[in-house]
Amino acid sequence: METLRVGLGERSYTITVGSGVLEQTGAICRDLGLGRNAAVVTNTTVGPLYFERVANALAGAGFTPLKVELPDGEEFKTSATLNSIYDALVDAGLTRDAFIVALGGGVVGDMAGYAAATFLRGIPFIQVPTTLLSQVDSSVGGKTGINHPRGKNLIGAFYQPRAVIIDVATLDTLPEREYLAGMAEVVKYGVVLDHDLFGEIERNVPSILARERETLSRIILRCCAIKAAVVEQDERESGPRAVLNFGHTFGHAVETLAGYGTWLHGEAVAIGMVQAAMVAERERIATAADTESIRAVLAALRLPVALPRFTARDYRDAMLRDKKVRDDGLTFVLNRGIGDYSLVRVRDLDGVLAACGIGK
Question: Is there a single domain that holds both residue 346 and residue 324?
Answer without folding.
Answer: yes
